[in-house]
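Inputs:
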Amino acid sequence: MDMALPVVNATAAVFARVSAAFNAPLARAVVFGVHIDGHLVVEGLLIAVIVFQLSRKSYKPPKKPLTEKEIDELCDEWEPEPLCPPIKEGARIDTPMLESAAGPHTIVDGKEVVNFASANYLGLIGNEKIIDSCIGSLEKYGVGSCGPRGFYGTIDVHLDCESKIANFLGTPDSILYSYGISTIFSVIPAFCKKGDIIVADEGVHWAVQNGLHLSRSTVVYFKHNDMASLASTLEKLTRGNKRAEKIRRYIVVESIYQNSGQIAPLDEIVRLKEKYRFRVILEESHSFGVLGKSGRGLAEHYGVPIEKIDIITAGMGNALATDGGFCSGSVRVVDHQRLSSSGYVFSASLPPYLASAAVSAVNYLEENPSVLANLRSNIALLHKKLSDTPGLEISSHVLSPIVFLKLNKSTGSPTTDLDLLETIADKVLKEDSVFIVTSKKSNLDRCKLPLGIRLFVSAGHTESDISRLSSSLKRVSASVLSDY
Amino acid sequence: MVRLPYTTALTTLFSYGLLFAFGQLRDFFRKFVDWFKAKNVKGYAPICLGLEDFYVRRLYLRIQDCFGRPIASAPDSWFDVVERTSNDNNKTLQCTSNTTRCLNLGSYNYLGFAAADEYCTPRVIESLKKYSASTCSVRVDGGTTKLHAELEELAARFVGKPAAILFGMGYVTNSAIIPCLIGKGGLIISDSLNHNSIVNGARGSGATVRVFQHNSPAHLEEVLREQIAGGQPRTHRPWKKIIVIVEGIYSMEGELCKLPEIIAVCKKYKAYTYLDEAHSIGAVGQSGRGVCELLGVDPADVDIMMGTFTKSFGSCGGYIAASKEIIQHLKQSCPAHLYATSMSPPAVQQVISAIKVILGEDGSNRGAQKLARIRENSNFFRSELKKMGFEVLGDNDSPVMPIMLYNPAKIPAFSRECLRQKVAVVTVAFPATPLLLARARICISASHTREDLMKALDVISRVGDLVGIKYFPAEPPKIAEADAEITS
């Protein structure tokens, strides 16, 4: 283009001179009734040159795909990272090994200890009736069910268990899952798809976070257990948003948060949900069989009618002393999961003996509601005895069976905090034979709540167990935390 | 691979088109009927909008009785199927108290450990009494018992790797492990027909996912070369690591993976391999050690081997076997290890006893007998079906054999007619398989006797004639040839 301009100018100059020379005689030329002036010829030639330049392709560097040899070289040069990062020095990897059932008293690494590390809230581990029903099941059905629910993996005990749980809770129907943790991360993607809105508490545990991530919906977190934050988030999302009526909207909360021991205020949540028209997914793993006059969960505890909660999920690995999980709700909710919940459709069903254990556990709870009173008095006693522990404070709700102890003053870094807490737990186990554990965090977990010592209180603990724990904890924490 | 003849494709498409048209017509009328009834509470969007659940409402519900059949006994070679009735045209089904004793061709019971076993069950009951049904605790807290440690060691020894880690459910094993191994900036290349748990795990990890053609090492090589040379999308930075995920036996095809070639390709391009042996561990191989043994691959060449205990060991749960460093890393960071209730102790004991039987460490040769029987049964059944003219997929030695049905009407016809003749089969349609390729899937077990198999073949042949699925010409029976010899 640069070189062309002077050429154009030169050409134009030449033509101007030539036409000037011809101007006089050409002034009288007439073509098709139009007077031809000399300048028309020049302009016509200029237009022709401009059109010629514009029609030429602009210069682009040619695209050359990589040759085979170049690809070979790149492949040879490429070095992958190792599959796992190197193990940090001094990381604790050995876990205590149990040699008997995980009841209130158990044998760890050869010696008898008081066990505060199992979520055996109703003390059903070792219960004779449950073990008998399991034995009957094992002899009749074997151990595994050898198939997913859709392909001959549905055994009549599964159907019995589902109807039993639905009757107990007072909901129309329920569905069983084969593993506690997979319940919530299969339920959430079954209902929430791309484009839906989910408002979740920021302290939910990993399985809920995984479910939220897999659902590909828009997730907005609100401050942990803070109802004002929830109200303002809901307000922001629905104000002026006319399309909000067509999108499905969910609130995801846990009844008792595993990471902090707080209890969600369900009456407030239901009031907000009805005001802003959201559906509620309630994760009740640690409150089913614990809260409420007869153990029916958070709804009974707050006196909220069960129909107002759209979806209730729970893992049965806690109060019911079995394995697996269930989800309960209206008939439409449950039927939808039978075909679109991946953890239900693509996985083998729950082993039948665990389903019969669940049925026996629910029967036991219905017949002996006094076990809940035992549990509650144990929790109250523990709170009273631990209220003056040096350096540690109880940060969980007074009714929560997970008693969460965290450091009064954090040292500043989470790793040193965790080290201190683990030292306390180790010493308590080694010196006083009381088995306690700290809360654990995976690096895939995005919850930012502080770590602490988690004590799982059971209805099977006696007063002397609790006294032993409190005196040991006070002594050890005084010695370990004296410098901080 | 499936070769779909044109006439079959046309008739199948026509059938689906007809079903779709009728479904739309019924939806149209349903809109009028529902005009007066307020189905949804005002202000809440419905759980499924419009066409999202069209397939379920209009196609699946018609043949709902072929799926989810409840049973009232152990899933052994013969079991009791509960009869169900419906008084609203299959929309809801109610169980009756009648049961039919049927031959079981659907459960994943490859080595026959499904029902009570003479060696395993007493030990399981003992461990139940000692440890009770659950530990109510996660593995890192108070959920590790001696049984768990024993099984981890035994599983590692059985598979041929230095160390192993256990999980309570096979599905969770895949979904929770893959995010621990790879994250953003990594690449996962998975087979196009991989199981849903692998897809979920890959999606949950945040890495980029690419798919290669089913069981094609050549296409895998092409994809690898393209991806390594191109780097991460848009930034073109080199990938942090690449993991290739394949399965041992693909459950809907019955095919074995082309493992030696795929391992060779991965080694050449320095990609890590992840082998999911859910269906093949315990069922194939001279001593039951899975596809590595069958195809002659050294377990040290596969970086991570995953398997489940549900199919061949009659229990529940899954495991990952790899080098000691990887297992230690997983024990510290895998969410399923840190947050999920540990595997139920009686189920752990069942797997320990089953592995001991297979290895012959229980003092008898029942394990070797079972392995020989399942190989014999699978090969016999497959060759007989092929001789009858059915289109059967899968390789020799694989205990899973799909029989192609194609047409949507043949699915309930085959399933219901077989049930009437007391044979229980599993039929699979969309979305587990591609739309046009519906099939019936047979799973052979070591507890099937020769008479059971002959009865099954007889029933399937008769039903196959009735329904019209013998797409290939049948081999003429040997008697006719002998007659021809005599008369000539």
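Chain B touches chain A through 119 residues (CB under 8 Å). Flag for discussion at group meeting.
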